[in-house]
Amino acid sequence: SPEFRSALSQTFTHSIRKNEDGEKYFYVATVVDHGSKIFGVLLLAAPFDTLMAPTYRIMRSMMIIALLLVVFTVVEGWLGSIYISQPLVRLSQVAKQLSQGDLSARSELEGPIETIHLSHTLNEMAARLEISLNSLRAFVANASHELRTPLTTIKLQVGVLRSAIEDDPEAAAHFLDQIDSEIDRLTFTVNDMLDLSQIEGGGGTLNLQPVNLADLSGEVLAFWDVRSRQAGLSLSMNVESELPNVRGDHYQLRRLFDNLLENAIKNTPSGGQIDILLKKTPTPRVRIEFRDSGIGIAPEHLPHLFDRFYRIDPRPVSDSGRAAPSGSGLGLAIARSITLSHGGQIGVNSQLGLGSTFWVELQPI
Ligand SMILES: Nc1ncnc2c1ncn2[C@@H]1O[C@H](COP(=O)(O)OP(=O)(O)OP(=O)(O)O)[C@@H](O)[C@H]1O
Ligand SMILES: [Mg+2]
C-alpha cells in the first residue's frame, strides 16, 4: 500500500483514502525498528465514518446550540425593541407635540426604568414651561392694559387740546399738564417693567458684596425723611446689636428698601408712625421689618400683593374728576424679585385699619 512505502521513507505517515471496495478509510503506518535495524512496518486502518462519529455528534450538538442562540437573539432583540422602542416612539411624539406649542401634552410613564425617568423629566420640563409661558402671557396682557389706559387718556386729551388751543388757551395749558403727567406715569411704568424683566431674567447680574443693613437702612431713612415729614409722619429706626452683614447687591437692596418704605409712607395717613426694625432670627437670618400704622390691607388682597400690576383700589378719583396719579403696581413685584434673587424671603402681616408690617429675611454672611 502507499502508506507502507511512505512509512519506509519517512518512518511515520497517515492518510485518508478509499480502499478497493470504495469505502473511505483512515490509514496510519509506522516503521518498527531498533537502532538501525528495521523489523517491519505497522499499518493500521479504520473505517473513517466510525472513527469520526463522536466528532460528528459534537459538531451537530454545537450547530444546534448555535442555531438556538441565533433564534433566541433575534426573538429577544425583537421583544426588546418592542418594549423599549414603543415607549420611545410615544415619547418622541409627545416631544413633537410640545415643540409644536401644545404645552399640555404629557408622556405616559411606561417601559423600562430609563424611559420612565426620561418621560418624567420631559413632563416636568413641560409643566414648568407651561407655567412660565402662562405667566408671560399674563404679564403681556397686564402690561398692554397698563400702557393702553394712559395712551387712551393722552389721545383724548390731545383731541380736546386741538379744539381748545385757539379759543381757550387756559384750558389748553391744563390739558398739556395732564398729558405731561400721563407721559411721566407711562415712563415710570415702562422703566419698572424693564427693571423687573432684567432682575427676573437674571440679565442684570448681582454685584455681590458684604452689605451692612443698618447703614443701608440709615441711608434710606435719610432719603425719605423730608417726604415723610411733609406727609405728617414720624419715622424711626431700631437696630439690634451685633447684626451680621449680608451678601448682597447694594443698589438692588437699596431699591427693595425704598419700595417698602415708599409704600408705607403712601399708605399711612398724616399723624402716623413708621418704624424700621433690624434683628436676628434664630434661623439664623437677618430680618428687616417696615412697620406702619397705616390703612392696612384686607385679607383677600394679601395673596396677590406681590403680583405684577396688583394694586388695591388702583386709582382714587381726585376732585378734578380724573384719576389721581398712582403707582404702577410693580413696586412689590420688584421687591419680591430682588429678595428671591438674593435667596431671601419676603412677606407681610397686616390688618385692615391697623397698619402693615412688610418683612424681608436675608442670609447673613
Ligand atoms: N404698607 C402698605 N399698607 C397698605 N397697603 C399697601 C402697603 N404697601 C402696599 N400696599 C398695597 O399694595 C399695592 C401694591 O403695592 P406696589 O408697591 O406693588 O404698587 P404701588 O405702590 O401701587 O405702585 P408702585 O410701587 O409700582 O409705584 C398698593 O397698590 C397698595 O394698595
Ligand atoms: Mg409701591
Give the helix/strand layout.
Elements: H1 2-10, E1 12-18, E2 24-34, E3 37-47, H2 48-99, H3 113-167, H4 169-200, E4 208-211, H5 213-230, E5 234-239, E6 246-249, H6 250-266, E7 273-280, E8 286-292, H7 331-341, E9 345-351, E10 355-362
Parallel strand pairs: 5-7
Antiparallel strand pairs: 1-2, 2-3, 4-6, 7-8, 8-10, 9-10
The structure holds adenosine-5'-triphosphate and magnesium ion.
Structure, described:
The chain has 365 residues and is an alpha+beta fold. It folds into three domains: 1-98, Beta-Lactamase, CATH 3.30.450; 103-205, Helix Hairpins, CATH 1.10.287.130; 206-362, Heat Shock Protein 90 (2-Layer Sandwich). It has helices at residues 2-10, 48-99, 113-167, 169-200, 213-230, 250-266, 331-341, and strands at 12-18, 24-34, 37-47, 208-211, 234-239, 246-249, 273-280, 286-292, 345-351, 355-362. The protein has a five-stranded mixed sheet with strand order 5-7-8-10-9, covered by helices on one side. Strand 9 and strand 10 form a beta hairpin. The longest helix has 55 residues, at 113-167. The model is unreliable at 315-325 (pLDDT under 50). Magnesium ion is lined by residues 259, 262-263, 327, 331.
